[in-house]
Specification:
The structure is a single chain. The N terminus is likely disordered. By secondary structure, the protein is mainly β. It is 4% helix and 44% strand. The strands form 9 sheets. Strands 3, 5, 6, 9, 10 and 11 form a 6-stranded mixed β-sheet that branches. Strands 28, 29, 32, 33, 34 and 35 form a 6-stranded antiparallel β-sheet that branches. Strands 1-2-4-8-7 form a 5-stranded antiparallel β-sheet.
Length: 471
């Protein structure tokens, strides 16, 4: 692409004298030469050899240099003149949004390091290892001595296609250890926000453990390998020292030892899979809130529960209700129990009246900080371009009280997606994977077209909200 820019190097001396009287009024102005026309220079700039074809940064050394843009045609320049470059990149050719790209000038070529390009690509597009298409805008500087002039127009070239260095973050992680008798068929899933794992690499799980519990971490690839008949233990993560009881540390993937939790009780185990670190936090509070009532015979020990994912005393979950019920802080009547306080509030007075709900399947939320609570009757369905109704209309599911599930049999289209939602509204919706559904979780992909039976099981996040998809 040809661009013209003007370079003028000159020194102007201007004397300004301010007086009350004009002493030069009768003196003719000095003779001057006419100003020379500004010199124009036509440059042709192209993508450099490093970006002329799709590039995968993970295949290069971090300190390698990549030719980004090259001046292919330039006018004659004064002896001793050199060029430098100001590079910017954008997703779009109009450069409505852009980022600077550090570069090094080498004659008539601007080069960037793999590390710098990787950082800018991830900042612009995110950390997912996708092939990203972008444009480069180039301003050229001419340097003569200590002076420099920038072109008043810019070259825009592209698109270039670059895949950033891939972070080794899998879609899901699981616990295996004492808590499930080291059984690969009974893995405990970590929770995740449902967003891209490259934007949110944090996973966590809250569970009750016995004293001297040992565990390792299994990535999704280990689970997939086991389900296909392979060696589950060929992929497992842990610590460099077997039996390490540190409450935080580094995760290793080779010759990994088990991590030890010495004290019994509830713990939160958190992973940062961008940094490959873990943290174990012992918790004093019970993450569960029990719901005894008419729906199950008023037995706190066998009551369904709500769960506080962040241990912030805000509990939620799904339960079938049928008439009066209460909340209790323990699986007995000996601790705090919560009844009707009026105006959407709970009372901690043990003699307070019972809460009440017509028979149905509810989403419950209780904030014990403010004693506010909500009960929302729900009827579930599926929606998405994989379903008969597309993203415009729900396909309803049927509730089975006996096994506490929602079921539908319907045709699904392969290569497309769906989600679960309640009451034909996005206020309450579930997405994620068969092992772990979350409120507002990601879309669920259907690989192959066919007639499917979908079974949805909702309880609380500690036990796991799950579904099955079978043909």
């Amino acid at each position: 692409m040809k661009k013209t820019f003007i370079y003028i190097l000159s020194v102007l001396m201007l004397g300004l004298i301010s007086c009350d009287e004009d002493f030069n009024k009768d003196v003719a102005p000095p003779q001057t030469n006419e100003q020379e026309d500004a010199k124009n220079a036509d440059f042709q700039v192209a993508l450099g050899s490093g970006l002329s074809s799709p590039l995968i940064l993970g295949q290069l050394e971090e300190d390698a240099m990549i030719e980004a843009v090259t001046v292919t045609t330039a006018p004659p320049m004064q002896d001793g003149a050199t060029l430098s470059f100001d590079l910017q990149i954008s997703k779009t050719e109009d450069f409505a949004q852009y980022l600077p790209l550090p570069s090094t000038a080498e004659g008539q070529t601007a080069s960037v390091s793999v590390a710098d390009l990787d950082n800018v690509i991830k900042e612009l597009f995110g950390k997912a290892p996708n092939a990203n298409s972008f444009f480069i805008r180039t301003y050229v500087y001419i340097h003569i001595g200590t002076s420099a002039v920038r072109s008043n127009t810019a070259n825009i070239v592209g698109p270039a296609v670059v895949t950033p260095v891939a972070l080794n973050i899998e879609s899901a992680y699981y616990l295996i250890g004492n808590m499930n008798e080291w059984n690969p068929d009974a893995l405990v899933p970590f929770s995740h926000s449902g967003s891209s794992v490259y934007e949110d690499p944090n996973f966590s799980v809250i569970l009750e453990v016995a004293a001297n519990t040992y565990f390792k971490i299994a990535p999704q690839s280990a689970k997939d390998l086991h389900e296909s008949g392979g060696d589950f233990w060929s992929i497992s993560y842990g610590t460099a020292v077997d039996g390490d009881s540190s409450l935080e540390g580094t995760i290793v993937t080779e010759n990994a030892g088990a991590i030890q939790i010495e004290q019994a009780g509830y713990v939160r185990i958190s992973l940062n899979m961008e940094e490959y670190t873990y943290k174990i936090e012992p918790m004093e509070a019970n993450p569960l809130l029990y719901i005894p009532g008419n729906h199950q015979g008023w037995d706190p020990a066998s009551a369904p529960t709500l769960y506080t994912a962040n241990m912030d005393m805000v509990y939620d979950g799904f339960v079938f209700l049928d008439g009066e019920y209460k909340f209790t802080s323990a699986p007995n009547w000996d601790n705090t129990n919560y009844g009707e306080g009026g105006d959407g509030r709970l009372s901690t007075d043990g003699s307070a009246g019972n809460l009440n709900a017509a028979a149905g399947f509810y989403y419950l939320k209780a904030d014990l900080n403010t004693l506010a609570y909500e009960q929302t009757l729900t009827n579930w369905g599926i929606i998405g371009d994989a379903t008969p109704g597309g993203w415009d209309s729900d396909t309803p599911m049927t509730y089975n009280r006996e096994n506490n599930t929602w079921t539908v049999t319907t045709a699904l289209e392969g290569g497309k997606e769906f989600k679960f939602r309640a009451n034909n509204s996005w206020d309450i919706n579930m997405g994620g994977t068969t092992d772990k559904l979350d409120l507002n979780g990601g879309n669920i992909r259907v690989e192959t077209s066919g007639n499917y039976t979908i079974v949805l099981r909702l309880s609380n996040a500690l036990n796991g909200n799950t579904f099955t998809l079978s043909r």
